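Q: Structure tokens for this one, please.
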Amino acid sequence: MKRPNTRLMLAAPSSGGRQARFCFAVVVSLTLGCADDSTGSAALPECTGPVTVTVGAGTSPQFSWSPACRLFFVIVEPAASGQDLWSVITEGTNAISSPVLYGTVPPGAQELDPPTPLVAGTAYKVAVARYTGPGPQDGAIIGMQTFTP
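A: Here is the predicted structure, written as tokens:
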């Protein structure tokens, strides 16, 4: 979640300092409230169409997608084969929000395949899917990216 612009709030004119202290207290509480938002993904819309997947560096990369939305499945496999190296799912619902760190199960998700260590210099692909139903694991791939750590 985007943090509020504290400079604007703190620069507001005051009479006798009382208004400035009030504005500062409001900004501090808003900032602290945004610092650890473990339920913020519920406010995101469900993914309804294609997303652009971005992959971070290293052998434990971070996967993110845009537009910001919730999906139900993330899978990593070698680029040359279909062997699942790691996958997570939220059966029957789009509840996974961006970003996701390789090997770390997102809140509310279950791990279908435990993470296999990624090897530097080897090509992999990550795919993300949205839930379509009617079965709890029925979905459509809406984004994919090939990467080499």
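A few notes: The CA atoms of residues 90 and 109 lie 5 Å apart. The first helix runs from residue 6 to 10.
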